[in-house]
Amino acid sequence: MNTTRPLRPQRGRVIYPGRASGRALTTQQPLSFFGSFDLETGVVTERGHPLEGRAVTGRVLVFPTGTGSTVGSFALLRMVRSGVGPAALVMRSCDTTVAVGAIIAEIPCVDQVDISLWNDDDQLWVAENEVGHDVG
């Protein structure tokens, strides 16, 4: 758990532009949108994953990178269209599958940031290439 917070927003690379905010859901483990989620509920179903049993719905999902099949792009789109997708994606390194998913689902997505700066339930915002923490 990180107990220090950045004083300034972190700047990264925009994968898909936009603005969103929400509680962070963080992991240091990669995720696959195809096979690791219940696409009807937005709950992580991958056995043994640190986020198993937790929903991404409306959260700023903070994770290192995506894994798996290109079908994951369409799985992410389906989650968003069903109203159970994340509000934004913040990553260390965005892979092609997640990039395409963020673009077709129109989810703000930023990579090339230090994902260790944030903890679960931190209130985060994403605005274009910046990710910030509300200290409220």
How do the strands and helices of this protein lay out in sequence?
Layout: E1 10-11, E2 13-16, E3 19-26, E4 37-38, E5 43-44, E6 60-63, H1 71-81, E7 88-91, H2 96-105, E8 109-111, E9 123-127, E10 130-133
Parallel strand pairs: 3-6, 6-7, 7-8
Antiparallel strand pairs: 1-10, 2-8, 3-9, 4-5, 9-10
Helix pairs in contact: 1-2
Biggest beta sheet summary: 8 strands, mixed
| Total number of strands | 10
- The chain-level structural class is alpha/beta
- Helix percentage: 10-25%
CATH architecture: 3-Layer(bba) Sandwich
Estimate what percentage of residues fall within beta strands.
25-35%
At the first level of CATH, the class is: Alpha Beta
Q: CATH superfamily name? A: Phosphohistidine domain
Q: What is the mean predicted local confidence, pLDDT?
A: 93
How would you describe the shape? globular
- Output the CATH topology: Glucose Oxidase, domain 1
Distance between the termini: 19 Å
Q: Strand order across the biggest sheet?
A: 1-10-9-3-6-7-8-2
Give an overview of the whole structure.
The protein is built from 2 helices and 10 strands, in the order E-E-E-E-E-E-H-E-H-E-E-E. It has 136 residues and is an alpha/beta fold. The chain is globular and about 35 Å long. The protein has an 8-stranded mixed sheet with strand order 1-10-9-3-6-7-8-2. The protein has a two-stranded antiparallel ribbon with strand order 4-5. Helix 1 packs parallel to helix 2 (96-105). The protein starts with 9 loop residues before the first strand and ends with a strand. The protein has helices spanning 71-81, 96-105, and strands at residues 10-11, 13-16, 19-26, 37-38, 43-44, 60-63, 88-91, 109-111, 123-127, 130-133. It has a single domain, classed as Phosphohistidine domain (Glucose Oxidase, domain 1).
